[in-house]
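INTERNAL TRANSFER SHEET
From: sequence group
To: structure group
Subject: Acid phosphatase

Please process the attached sequence and return the structure record in the designated field. Keep the field labels unchanged so the import script can parse them.
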Amino acid sequence: MGTLSAKCLLFTLALSSGLWRPGAAELPDYQPQQVHIAIGETNDEMVISWVTMDYTPSSIVEFGTDALKTRVESFPKNFTNLGFELRVMFMHKVTITNLLPDTRYFYHCGSEYGWSDLFTFKTWKSGTDWPVKIAMYGDLGSENAQSLPRLQTEVQNGMYDAIIHVGDFAYDMQNDNGRVGDE
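Return from structure group:
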């Protein structure tokens, strides 16, 4: 779908749902961004979180091992950036439970107003007697991210069971009303 037709579809959805009113400054932005995944409280859980710039009535993750057959929903929470614009964005978090061990799942997140790309994850093996291969990194950098291509290749080749990010996820949040952190 081309960019123009996608914008027309978003406009139609927003207008028909009552989420956008004529006279609003711009079209709403329902596209999930800044998608993150984390292990839940137990090994059979994954937590998917993302941000949208505009409100959607629900937060949805569709997932499965060969098709997006299962759906889990929750509700977004608003977040107000404390810059002078007081920008409001919406935080989404969905916990997927009862996952099978050592299994690859496909998923996307969002709502009927917009979906993320298709992503994958693999669950932990069962039991506790198996070696864990972990990559750990700090500040990846939005500029000059020299380790990124190598890390992407190693992850895509299945070299790690988990990646731990210990550094700056977002910084300079005080600049440009938080837009620096959005990058």
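Handover comment: The chain has a mean pLDDT of 82. The two ends are 25 Å apart (CA to CA).
Transfer complete.
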